[in-house]
């Protein structure tokens, strides 16, 4: 594999390209959701790099870790909403509308398509390439949150960073994509059911 087609190089080039796209469209109202969904459709190339990690946990352990991740995400949200008004349900709904999520089908597309592609991209192209586990968790979480820097408030970004730390830690333990995907989707569904 040439130097330009190595995973770190592909990640860096695509990551900078995605940031450029988001930066250019940052002042355009209500297009962020469309941009991010399109960006993660472009990341399907990371599926070519995906290989099941030989040190991964069994599927039952991985799903259990995903369930624990969902519980941790819900706990982080419940604690954060008491201290950060910007992450309370009405504020989150306003933010979603501001970034272009107007219909339930858009949320379903995000859960069914964008979340798995996001996890595939960041876990396969970045987290798997960093050998230090703690550094892998922190760097991957920061990189993931950085895509939202133009649309979220600093406190919302901090909360999202905490969420990403939970998901990255779950992946680091299980080494299977099912863990962060389960954690993220399940926590969103439960929080929607609790708050609507």
Key words describing this protein structure:
196 residues; mainly alpha
Describe this structure in words.
By secondary structure, the protein is mainly α. The chain has one domain (3-195). Helix content is 71%, strand content 0%. The chain is built from eight helices and no strands. The chain has helices at residues 7-24, 32-42, 59-83, 89-98, 104-125, 133-146, 154-174, 178-195. The longest helix has 25 residues, at 59-83. The termini are far apart. The relative contact order is 0.17. The model has no long low-confidence stretch (mean pLDDT 88).
Contiguous low-pLDDT stretches (5 residues minimum) are: none
For the CA atoms, what is the radius of gyration? 16 Å
Q: pLDDT average, as an integer? A: 88
Helix/strand structural class? mainly alpha
- The N- and C-terminal alpha carbons lie at a distance of 50 Å
Number of beta strands: 0
Biggest beta-sheet profile: none
SSE string: HHHHHHHH
Give the percentage of residues in beta strands: under 5%
Q: State the domain count.
A: 1
Task: Classify the helix fraction into a percent range.
Answer: over 70%
Shape: globular
Count of individual helical segments:
8
């Amino acid at each position: 594999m040439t130097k330009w087609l190595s995973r770190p190089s592909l990640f860096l080039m695509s990551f900078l390209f995605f940031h450029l796209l988001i930066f250019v469209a940052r002042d355009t109202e209500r297009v962020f959701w469309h941009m991010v969904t399109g960006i993660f459709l472009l990341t399907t190339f990371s599926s070519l790099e995906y290989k099941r990690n030989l040190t991964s946990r069994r599927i039952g352990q991985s799903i259990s870790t995903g369930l624990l991740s969902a519980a941790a995400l819900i706990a982080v949200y419940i604690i954060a909403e008491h201290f950060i008004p910007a992450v309370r349900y009405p504020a989150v709904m306003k933010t979603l509308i501001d970034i272009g999520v107007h219909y339930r089908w858009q949320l379903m597309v995000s859960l069914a398509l964008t979340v798995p592609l996001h996890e595939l991209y960041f876990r396969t192209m970045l987290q798997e390439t960093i050998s230090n586990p703690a550094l892998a968790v922190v760097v991957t979480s920061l990189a993931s949150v950085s895509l939202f820097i133009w649309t979220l408030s600093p406190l919302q970004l901090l909360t999202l960073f905490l969420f990403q730390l939970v998901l990255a830690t779950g992946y680091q333990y299980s080494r299977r994509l099912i863990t962060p995907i389960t954690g993220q989707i399940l926590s969103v569904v439960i929080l929607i059911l609790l708050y609507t």
